[in-house]
Structure prediction request, 995 residues.
Amino acid sequence: MNSACSEATCAPFPIKEMTLKRHARERIWPILGVLLLALGTGRVLRAQGPGHLQGNVTDPSGAVVPRATVRVTAQPSGPSRTVRTDSRGHYEISGLAPGSYTVTADAPGFSPYVKTGVVIAGSGTATLDIGLAIAAQSQKVEVNSSAPRIELSPESNSTAVVITGHDLSTLSNDPDELQSQLGELAGPSVGAGGGEIYVNGLSGADLPPKADIREIRVNSNPFAVQNDRLGYGRVDVVTKPGSAAFHGSASVEYNNSAMNALSPFLAAPGETPPSYHTWLWNGELGGPLGKNASFFVNFQRRDINRANLVNTEVLDSNLNIQPYVATVANPRTFTAVGPRLDFELSPNNTLTVSYGYYNVGEYNDGVDTQALPSQAYDNNQHHHDVQIFDSQVFGPRVVNEIRFEYIHFHDVQKPLSLAPTIDVLGAFLGGGNSNGALDRHETHYELQNLTTMSLGGHLIQFGGMLRVIRRRQEYSNNFNGTFTFNSLADYQQTEQGLQNGLTMSQIQAAGYGPSQYNVTSGTLSASVTRVDTALFAGDDWHLRPHFTASYGLRFESENVISDHADWAPRFGIAWGLGHGSNVKTVLRAGWGIFYQRFDDDQMIVAARLNGQNQITYIVAQPGFFPAAPPASALAGVANSVPTVYRISPTIRSPYDMDTAVSLERQLLPSTTISLTYIYSRGDAQFLVNDVNAPLPGTFTPGDPSSGVRPLGNSAGNIYEYQSAGIFRQTQWIANVHVHASRVSIFGYYVFNDAHSDADGADSFPANPWNIYADYGRAAFGIRHRAMIGGTLAAPLGIRLSSVMMANSGMPFSITLPQDLYGTGIHNARPAPATASTPAADLVVTPYGAFNIAPGPSDVLIPPNTETGPANFMMNLRLSRTFGLGGEGGALHGGKGTAQAAGAGRRYDHRAGLGGRGLGGGGGFGLGGATSHRYALTLSVSVLNLLNNVNLAPPVNVLGSPLFGRSIALASGPFSAQVGNPVANRLINVGASFSF
Prediction:
């Protein structure tokens, strides 16, 4: 690439603390938690319900059909109950109110069964035996129960989506791309935290390979009392169980540079694009283990030979400013192994044990658009994940589930250069990597218990959760020191002065030189233990056939912070509008309080940089560049400010109060639409503030000796984690679900208006004495967002899967490179220019005219006043399955569709345990479905089919020669950057063989 320069020249190596009302410190919760968990695992008294329906499901020969789905719906359009037949083909449904019901049943390979007018009278028991007919062509069976329908149960809200089978193929097989796409699929969540992904109902686990996923549920039951966060933005991933017969598949996917479109930043004449390739292998096998057990095991290996792209401006060998474009090899490997065992211990007790091993090796990480090659570091991660689920049925009305997860992470990071870091704001990051060496050991333990009881018209759920995270790490972050220059011109003048024999004193007298040097020293090791717990109870009460009320209460607590008692009530209604059998509209409303936990990422920072283990010294206008003195030499120096982190003694858990109202309508038997309004009010949001910043008006930028600190100048900067931020957010969400015989479509549009004065737990206010001055458009306030995806069964057996995503531009702030408030943080914003602004301080840009040297009385411009480029992405996958060999009976090679959540089954870890304790098979491979014994599937997938150039927000630092220019492709799902940042469009070809 550009060789006009070398590493030596281009890249040398408080606001007064808010008084918060303390919550009562109830000490009885640990005892209650233990009692509730014990109660959930014990025998629960059998409750009496008003009505009971039972029967057997058989095929035409009279043989029982295990694991068939039986659904009972109150007529004309009331609540539904869904169960599966046991190993004897028997089903039971209790707690049915007197009235008339519609009963449907289906199973793979059979035609759907529907019977209306089934009467439940009084508290008696009705018997209905169901005989299923063989479908004429099993590979073309259309299961009506998977079509979208309007239902009253909370998890059946029409904003929810279940993606399974063929529609999983709309998503990338690459683990990084998949995680990014799932975040976009979930849409915007509430606040700055973003969407959350749960694997089998548990948090913290690695996302399994796509071939290991049975289904993905998005936005299910937003106000569920068992969930700690609002359901909007929540993604639940459910993995595959074993099967009743041996099934398996092996697949491969391939890509190389010749198949892709080049990044526009590498398209300059004379540039030689790098050569690279990617292999992705998958293998899976499932089947029976004896009479009452099954297994499933998945293997994935990914070898990526890719490159990172640098695109910025630096100094050449003659110390002239020039563009710098370079690629650096960034090979990566990913290995995942995931066995799972399912046991039917008794007809009423099933046990599932799964293990996941993940190994990630990445080399030359850290190199990015403005991070030069000397920033490279190697990273290796080993993750072990054990999940255990035990489900017990106590009679026909009580089910208890115990979930346990153990995760161990071991991450090792090693920088390739330990030279001091050179940070030229708005231009480049060079020298050694300030992240330093890292050796992290982290262990997660999570125990959940959920008991579900059906009592008449009530569906009661209660339980508890206990989570423990132990983290120990050795970390030399910033032990090499960092020199900060406010602009590339400052760096150029400094280097030219040193080359011409000037001293640093002479260079500084001319107004140049680094504006800051900071370095950390102390012991490497630090550790924390985070414990949080929750108790909850809720009820879905079917008051009338067309009306359901949901209510519940959740209690949460956490150690380390002073807030130990957080109460979270939840309420919701679902009202079917209309009369008789024409009820095709549901009005829903919900309200709830949701808390955010203080994370171990912030705990470990406060434990490490507490002034005893480690301390940071910030030196304004250092006169010793380019030499870096030891940190011990900086203690007591006049312009050296000691800096520590701590947790506020009055910190509490942030919370948001969320209100949602939605209207759902079934337009056609295959189509539902919905419109949802969400208003969120967030208070006590996390941020970091310097509580010992110089008092307003006492600090003069450029004069490190100025400033009077309230706790004494010798105390230095005290960066304190506080809960003092707020946000207000309004969202309008439109959803559509279509499920017809040959096409399945899911999609949404979101209008989002969000304002805040904090951007997360590690964000600093621009002015430490006026946090509210940062209130404005939130960084997570992307105004418009849309996504639509689905599958089409095309002629000639071809299956087409596609997803289109679009976002309006990401908000960004215009910032100054100066430290205006003496905090050591460079995040201040300019003030609007006025008639009295001195010419030397006036900068005119396409975004307006600004005063770049605002005084204490000047009002800064609000945050995030500007908007980056809009993004559009279309992905496409074509696949064709060829059946080989004789008829094999069950469908395989992939099957299923995306559906509204109410059309599928409730979340159940026992799914897949059917006859002889096993499941029905199917769902393996990359695509297509056939009843032949073997299946060969060929596929081609394209990321960014239209080769649209999606740009990242522009450089936002005033004084940068790149200010206002987008110099990188958009991150996340809107480009091929996750797969390879030097490509704008990726084409993958794949093949899968299944049996």
User: Anything to note?
Assistant: The helical segments are 7-10, 29-41, 175-186, 488-499, 504-509, 600-608. The chain has two domains: 51-136, 247-819+865-875+945-994. The first strand starts at residue 52 and ends at 58.
